[in-house]
Amino acid sequence: MANTSDISRGLIIKLDGSLYSVVEFGENKTARAAAKVWAKLKGVDNNRSIEKTWNSGDTIYPVRVEKKAFQFLYKDDSGYNFMDNETFEQIAVAENMVDAPQFLKDGQEVAVMFNTETEQPMSVELPDKIVLQVTYSEPGVKGDTATRTLKPATVETGATVNVPLFVNEGELIRVNTKTGEYVERVKE
């Protein structure tokens, strides 16, 4: 059995019948009382974020998670459809389980997290940084480069990203999928 000393960032635990991922954790020690362990938890199978405190040494129930490579196929009424790169088996996942659905493009490789107890998909993670083509952007004003001014640009997935003035329509840019921010221009 696992106890509170096994808590780490990213660990998925079962708590009150739901699954939660550990976002942040720490320990509070006082001179008289026993140590307490606290954690900020984000719901995996629900949209809740909670804080939980245990006495040091209490039992926790971690869930074993497996990460598999899948490829994004298309979106329809059943949700986002992905194909296993090894078995070619297809699964449909709800939009709230995808970490950045606005950046998904056809053929995009993603990591799908599975609960090994139930074999159910828990979440879909895009790579940290992906390359997208700018499909629409206002032209920048020449000479307006003294400040780090940003302008909105639409990328091939339909999402809007703020980019520097020198980025033009048709160019490839690298985008951080966690923050949705422009990282750099990509040379072909």
Observed structural traits:
188 residues, mainly beta, SH3 type barrels, OB fold (Dihydrolipoamide Acetyltransferase, E2P), 6-stranded antiparallel beta sheet, 5-stranded antiparallel beta sheet, flat, Elongation factor P, cytoplasm, translation elongation factor activity, protein biosynthesis, elongation factor
Secondary-structure blueprint:
Blueprint: E1 2-3, E2 12-15, E3 18-28, E4 36-43, E5 49-55, E6 59-62, E7 65-76, E8 79-84, E9 90-93, E10 109-115, E11 120-125, E12 129-137, E13 150-155, E14 160-164, E15 172-176, E16 181-186
Fold and architecture overview:
Pathway: Protein biosynthesis; polypeptide chain elongation. This is Elongation factor P. Belongs to the elongation factor P family. Its main location: cytoplasm. Residues 67-122 form the Translation elongation factor P/YeiP central domain. With 188 residues, this protein is mostly beta strands. The protein folds into 3 domains: 2-62, SH3 type barrels; 65-125, Beta Barrel (OB fold (Dihydrolipoamide Acetyltransferase, E2P)); 129-186, Beta Barrel (OB fold (Dihydrolipoamide Acetyltransferase, E2P)). The protein has no helices and 16 strands. The chain has a 6-stranded antiparallel β-sheet, with no helix packed on it. β10 and β11 form a beta hairpin.
